[in-house]
Structures are given as structure tokens and as C-alpha cells.
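Hey,
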Amino acid sequence: HSYVYTGWELAYPLLAGMGTTVEGEHWSPANIGSTFMVGSIGLMSFSLLGFAVAARRMGLVRLWVASWCIATAVLFSFPRVLTAAMGAGVDPQSVSVRVLNYGAQLVISILLGGNFVTIQVMVNSYVATRTDG
């Protein structure tokens, strides 16, 4: 899943930085960077405050699968919704476009970033059960 996460980190700035003549947002590097900062803060908060609760309630495997399902839906829908909004003439600096960007970044960062933690906990749990581990 690191390829998907890395792909998002490469593709999102390209999409957000595209000019409005090609239905992009024409966002500046500062705008794009602030969405990544919000995503990072969301991931840190989830890792510290929410991961243990979610893992206890759902179990690690269900948490991992649910995270993938939701993140995949956002990965596929975000560019289409954004392009449709830009094509309809929505202002790239509007609240709705900002909510779309920050919301997508939060979901992707928290869920896919949290999956790194999930995999590490799963591996640690497996190794702990081994007699040679």
C-alpha cells in the first residue's frame, strides 16, 4: 500500500496545481502544502488518540480492510468530483473546494497512513507468538 500512498502524494499536487483552463484548481504550493500539513496532523492525532480504540472495537484485519475500502472510494471519487466542480465554474478558493481538498487529504492520510501502523502491529503480534521470535 506504500505505492498507493506515494502515488497520492505525487498525483495530488499535480492535480491541485493544474490550471483552471484544464479544470484544475491552480492552487499554489502553499495551498497544497497546507493540505498535507492538515493530513499529517490528522494522522498523528489518529495514531495517538484513535488507533487503539478503533483496533479494539474492530480488530486489526477489519480495520485494515475498512480503511482500504474507504480510502479507495476517496481516491477514485476525489479527482472526478474536483474536475466536475472546476468544470462547473466553482471558485478554486471557495469553501466547498477547500473542504473537498482538506477532507480528501484527511481521509487518505489517516486511513492509508494508519494502515502502516496496523500492519506493524499485525507483524509484531505474529512475531510475538513465535518461539524463535
